[in-house]
């Protein structure tokens, strides 16, 4: 059989029009336990997509599989880059993922206590620093310019978060709400196409959660990206997500709009218990 | 948009320290400072260079080595060999003596991906011990227990004097501090701290752990080796047992006592660990005359410093500032109340 151009194209992974990320039949086991089973879902461009499920359902594991902190035992994680190219993230090493336009935040805040808030944001811009260690050591003009430009970008994000006055304060000792915001802000510095947030509302009170809702809306608008999040705060999730995937015991229960999910009997049973 | 970092010249503190070292030279010429004191201060200078390297490794990257003395000794022997036996010019000796240990240091960087904490410490301790034994056994090269001799550095065909060597070393320290200051305040410095603070976050932000562990070990080994070359050409004699665990632990003390997440802390640490026993404690009336007691007291001081200044002696600077601020504040209160 001759290899026509069409045939060759069919060999490389393919995503439907408008889809940014697709997890296709991903599975992973730890020891004897099947943590995630043949999970398939997709996130579209400019969409806020939520994953819900009881504790232990495998939500963070899915995030780790997507961001290559774990390697799935089987399945593909297809992602459409800015240039239109579709790649399987499974072929990448962990630090390479963010360069493709996919960045994550952590459930337990993973900020650097010894750095200021501005510097913590600048860590998020790491992939944009192209000058060598030697250039930085000698403070050559290119290195100085790069530092200045990216520091301005960090200040813009700080202003967006309403935290400009804390720019030079160390992350150590900051109130929890501030740390949550910086954790979120750091993701913005890499110019992401998809931001993955692991329980962004955890530990926030009602006012702070409202703030966060406004922030997520603003991010979707100003930064032109999609957001994939795990959350337990149902009001927040229903408020902010266009579509939701409900998980239980590593499997997909249902996918749909917030209304569809709320009304779904299997979801109600798994999450809320039988009435 | 107002930038957070103001454009002041950040190197004044390093220049002042360098000048304080240099001012000892005219004092020495005038007879106020003895030649042996000058030698001790010169030793402080190259221990500070090594200390800066330790700070990068321990304070900024969260990595440990207990084999530093082995690398310093390797550089010392290489430089002694190249200058005395091969007659190579100083700069070439310097390059060779830094390059060889750094290649080995990079190897340790690769190993450090798999080993952490105590395991890395023990592994590096082992390598340091291997090197020390090499110095003892490899007699055609090192001259074994007879020791190896060298001369002051020979630049542009002229052999320097002790005083000029000392000044040269003070300038080297200044350059090292400025370059390392630049590194730690750049994206590289932030990446190292990110790697230390959270390997997960670092990777999520695109920081390759392998790359930055290699950078950390490379910088640290280069500075340790530089210190070794400086040792050889000031002390002019190298003996195998010097390069043992005791010296490696001194490096650790210098780093921790001075302030391991700073650049200047290395100078303070070196002054404390090297100069204080010799220049201060041994001069004291009763304590100073008994052999070994100086080091007992120094050990005691080290414990006290760690109890009260666990961030390093460098914090004294900010504590003094706070005290001055408090006194000024109280004075203002009193003035206001008494209506002056």
TrEMBL record, chain A:
Give the GO terms filed under biological process for this record.
D-alanine transmembrane transport; L-alanine transport; L-isoleucine import across plasma membrane; L-valine import across plasma membrane
Pfam families reported for this sequence: ABC_tran, BCA_ABC_TP_C
Q: Which GO terms describe its cellular component?
A: plasma membrane
PROSITE patterns assigned: ABC_TRANSPORTER_2 (PS50893)
The protein's UniProt keywords, in alphabetical order, are: ATP-binding, Nucleotide-binding, Transport
Q: Where is the ABC transporter domain?
A: 21-274
Q: Where are the transmembrane segments?
A: none
Q: Which GO terms describe its molecular function?
A: ATP binding; ATP hydrolysis activity; L-isoleucine transmembrane transporter activity; L-phenylalanine transmembrane transporter activity; L-valine transmembrane transporter activity
Q: Under which name does UniProt file this protein?
A: Branched-chain amino acid transport system ATP-binding protein
From TrEMBL, chain B:
Record keyword Transmembrane helix present = yes
The domain of life for this entry's organism is: Bacteria
Q: What coarse category fits the chief subcellular location reported for this protein? A: membrane
For this protein, the record's CDD domains field holds:
TM_PBP1_LivM_like (cd06581)
Compartments it resides in? Cell membrane
What keywords are annotated for this sequence in UniProt? Answer: Cell membrane, Membrane, Transmembrane, Transmembrane helix
Which molecular function terms from Gene Ontology are attached? branched-chain amino acid transmembrane transporter activity
Q: Where do transmembrane segments lie in this chain?
A: 63-80, 86-111, 118-135, 166-193, 214-234, 254-274, 286-309
Q: Which GO terms describe its cellular component?
A: plasma membrane
The name this protein goes by in its record: Branched-chain amino acid transport system permease protein
Source organism per UniProt: Papillibacter cinnamivorans DSM 12816
């Amino acid at each position: 059989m001759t290899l026509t151009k069409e045939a060759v194209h069919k060999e490389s992974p393919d995503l439907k029009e408008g889809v940014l990320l697709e997890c296709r039949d991903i599975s992973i086991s730890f020891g004897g336990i099947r943590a995630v089973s043949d999970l398939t879902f997709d996130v579209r461009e400019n969409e806020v997509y939520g994953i819900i499920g009881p504790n232990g359902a495998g939500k963070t594991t899915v995030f780790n599989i997507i961001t290559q902190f774990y390697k799935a035992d089987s399945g593909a994680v297809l992602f459409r880059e800015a240039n239109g190219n579709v790649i399987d993230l499974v072929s990448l090493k962990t630090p390479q993922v963010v360069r493709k336009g996919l960045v994550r935040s952590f459930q337990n805040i993973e900020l650097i206590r010894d750095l200021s808030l501005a510097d913590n944001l600048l860590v998020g811009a790491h992939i944009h620093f192209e000058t060598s260690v030697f250039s930085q050591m000698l403070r050559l003009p290119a290195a100085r310019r790069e530092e200045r430009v990216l520091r301005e970008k960090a200040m813009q994000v700080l202003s967006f978060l309403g935290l400009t006055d804390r720019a030079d304060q160390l992350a150590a000792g900051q109130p929890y709400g501030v740390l949550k915001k910086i954790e979120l802000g750091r993701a913005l510095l890499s110019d992401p196409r998809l931001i993955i947030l692991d329980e962004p509302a955890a530990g926030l009170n009602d006012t702070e959660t409202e703030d966060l809702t406004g922030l997520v809306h603003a991010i979707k608008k100003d930064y032109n990206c999609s957001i994939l999040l795990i959350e337990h705060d149902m009001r927040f999730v229903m408020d902010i997500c266009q579509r939701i995937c409900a998980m239980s015991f590593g499997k997909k229960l249902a996918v749909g709009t917030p209304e569809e999910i709320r009304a779904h009997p299997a979801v109600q049973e798994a999450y809320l218990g039988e009435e | 948009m107002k930038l957070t970092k103001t454009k002041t010249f950040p190197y004044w503190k390093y220049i002042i320290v360098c000048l304080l070292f240099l001012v000892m030279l005219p004092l020495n010429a005038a007879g106020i400072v003895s030649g042996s004191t000058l030698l001790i201060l010169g030793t402080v200078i190259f221990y500070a260079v090594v200390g800066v390297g330790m700070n990068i490794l321990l304070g900024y990257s969260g990595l440990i080595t207990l084999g530093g003395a082995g690398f310093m000794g390797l550089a010392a022997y290489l430089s002694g060999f190249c200058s005395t036996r091969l007659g190579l010019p100083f700069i070439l000796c310097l390059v060779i003596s830094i390059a060889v240990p750094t290649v080995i240091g990079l190897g340790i960087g690769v190993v450090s991906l798999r080993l952490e904490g105590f395991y890395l410490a023990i592994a590096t301790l082992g390598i340091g011990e291997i090197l020390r034994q090499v110095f003892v056994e490899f007699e055609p090269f090192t001259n074994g227990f007879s020791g190896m001799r060298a001369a002051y550095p020979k630049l542009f065909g002229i052999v320097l004097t002790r005083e000029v060597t000392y000044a040269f070393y003070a300038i080297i320290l200044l350059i090292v501090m400025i370059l390392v200051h630049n590194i730690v305040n750049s994206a590289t410095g932030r990446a190292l701290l990110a790697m230390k603070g959270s390997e997960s976050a670092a990777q999520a932000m695109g920081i390759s752990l392998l790359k930055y562990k290699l950078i950390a070990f490379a910088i640290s080994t280069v500075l340790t080796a530089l210190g070794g070359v400086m040792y050889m050409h000031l002390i002019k004699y190298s003996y195998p047992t010097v390069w043992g665990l005791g010296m490696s632990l001194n490096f650790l003390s210098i780093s921790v006592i001075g302030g391991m997440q700073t650049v200047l802390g290395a100078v303070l640490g070196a002054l404390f660990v090297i100069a204080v026993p010799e220049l201060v404690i041994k001069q004291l009336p009763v304590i100073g005359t008994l052999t070994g007691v100086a080091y007992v007291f120094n050990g005691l001081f080290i414990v006290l410093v760690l109890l009260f200044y666990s961030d390093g002696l460098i914090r004294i600077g900010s504590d003094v500032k706070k005290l001055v601020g408090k006194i000024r504040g109280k004075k203002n209160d009193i003035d206001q109340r008494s209506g002056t």
